[in-house]
From TrEMBL, chain B:
Belongs to the CPA3 antiporters (TC 2.A.63) subunit B family. NCBIfam families: PRK08386.1. The chain crosses the membrane at residues 68-85, 97-119, 125-146, 158-182, 194-213. Residues 98-216 form the Na+/H+ antiporter MnhB subunit-related protein domain. The keyword NAD does not apply. Residues 22-86 form the MrpA C-terminal/MbhE domain. This is Cation:proton antiporter. Its main location: membrane. It is found in: Cell membrane. One of its GO terms (cellular component) is plasma membrane. Coiled coil: none annotated. InterPro entries: CPA3_antiporter_subunitB (IPR050622), MnhB (IPR007182), MrpA_C/MbhE (IPR046806). It is a multi-pass membrane protein.
From TrEMBL, chain C:
The chain crosses the membrane at residues 6-25, 30-50, 56-75. This is DUF4040 domain-containing protein. InterPro entries: MrpA_C/MbhD. Keywords: Cell membrane, Membrane, Transmembrane, Transmembrane helix. It is found in: Cell membrane. GO terms for cellular component: plasma membrane. It comes from candidate division WOR-3 bacterium. It is a multi-pass membrane protein. Residues 14-80 form the MrpA C-terminal/MbhD domain.
Length: 114, 227, 83
């Protein structure tokens, strides 16, 4: 099989695995770990679509003829930084919830029931 | 019962959308339409050898300003949420002799490496964002080795705020001189030298300082035990 | 891509899937955080094989350095074991 199946398969497995961890676990920190794994999978999927066979990295210190697509790399650079910002802010909310309820179980947060 | 049906429906939708991404993007095929202009004329128009840097700072500079704003909002919200906590202070034992001696020698080398990464953003891979995070990792090493060390909050906020304001002022100077926000108003120079590529070194130095001070502030807010 | 690179990538992808299963099953949250750092590190190696060095440096510094540090500080303020 060619290399594309490996890379696409890894990215899709990470996305599905991350969503399963975030949807079925009860501990708040494990939900945030699942979201982090899913974001890594999405970034890997974006860069895999930009690969060109026989191309090199987009840095022009010699005149190359075949260069890998640089636009998905610029998008993913922004996405990684925003991912860490969202994770840091979610963890500060978790620390506040633990200080009030003294438990990290998501079923014990009574203010969010309807 | 209905929750299980909804979960299965969600996975079917997810599988369909991911399958359509994989089917229309065969692996390794040459499909550059928009990026053809950036690859062919990128070095001539901007003067930088790293095309990803030219796209992030010059061709798509407004998106980078939005990303810096999102990072700033997240760090400020974290500082505001963790402000007045009351925890029982657990007893801290000092770290071992090997860690505290080695940290004293490695700390300036890590800061030197981080500065190298963000100053050479237009010549080698890297740029402002990983350079700032490497500097924050040096401060994390210092917090782990010396548990009583304090970094003053006023210095960090002053550095971060000044770097952010100077970034917007650089954009407004481009508006004044060349009628376009964040235009390239410095001379392009010869590609391959350190002082070339217009405003790219200036903006990446400002982003490096800002991200470094911000992440050090986040780690310092998470470290404190009692107020 | 030459076949030896495909074998190397297959071994790395198997490690990544193993780390995801470990992060699902374990009850010790420190092990889950460290497996998330391992996934970021292996993704950084895959970015380098896909000829993207900018993204590899950024993912290695942020994913395997800063996110793990923030998680460990938060684990110190809350509980370590999932009940």
């Amino acid at each position: 099989m060619n290399g594309g199946a490996m890379f696409y398969g890894a990215a899709i497995a990470l996305i599905i695995g991350g969503i399963m961890i975030a949807a079925t676990k009860r501990n708040l920190i494990k939900i945030i770990i699942g979201l982090n794994i899913m974001e890594t999978g999405v970034n890997l999927l974006l860069i895999t679509t930009g690969y060109i066979s026989g191309g090199t990295a987009p840095i022009m210190n010699k005149t190359w003829t075949k260069v890998v697509d640089p636009i998905p790399q610029a998008l993913v650079l922004t996405a990684i930084v925003i991912g860490v910002a969202v994770t840091a802010m979610a963890l500060s909310i978790v620390v506040r919830i633990y200080e009030k309820n003294n438990s990290l179980d998501i079923r014990k947060i009574k203010e969010m029931r309807w | 019962m209905i929750k299980k049906v909804l979960i299965i429906l969600l996975f079917v939708l997810l599988g369909l959308s991911l399958y359509s991404v994989v089917k229309y993007n065969t692996f390794g095929e040459d499909k550059t339409v928009v990026a053809r202009h950036y690859i062919d004329y990128g070095m001539k128009e901007t003067g930088s050898q790293n095309i990803v840097t030219a796209v992030v700072v010059l061709y798509r500079g407004f998106d980078t300003l939005g990303e810096v704003t999102v990072l700033f909002l997240a760090a400020t919200a974290l500082g505001a949420l963790l402000h007045g906590l009351r925890f029982k202070s657990k007893e801290k034992e000092p770290s071992s002799l090997i860690v505290s001696t080695a940290a004293r020698y490695i700390f300036p080398l890590i800061i030197l490496f981080g500065t190298y990464v963000f100053v050479h953003g237009h010549l080698t891979p890297g740029g402002g964002f990983p350079g700032g995070v490497i500097i924050a990792s040096a401060f994390l090493l210092l917090f782990l080795a010396y548990t009583q060390k304090e970094v003053s909050e006023k210095t960090l906020s002053l550095t971060e705020g000044t770097a952010g304001i100077l970034y917007v002022i650089t954009g407004l100077l481009g508006l004044v001189m060349l009628n376009s926000f964040l235009a390239n108003f410095l001379p392009k120079g010869i590609p391959g030298k350190l002082l070339s590529a217009g405003i790219i070194p200036l903006i990446y130095i400002l982003i490096g300082f800002k991200v470094g001070a911000e992440m050090t502030g986040v780690l310092r807010n998470l470290k404190e035990e009692e107020k | 891509m030459s076949s030896i690179i495909i074998i190397f990538v297959s071994i790395l992808v198997l490690f990544m899937l193993g780390a995801t299963i470990v992060a699902w099953v374990t009850k010790d949250l420190l092990v889950a955080v460290l497996s998330s750092g391992t996934i970021s590190l292996i993704a950084s190696i895959l970015y380098l094989i896909l000829q993207a060095p900018d993204v590899a440096i950024t993912e290695a510094a942020i994913g395997a350095g800063l996110t793990t540090g923030i998680f460990v500080y938060v684990l110190k303020k809350t509980e370590r074991f999932e009940k």
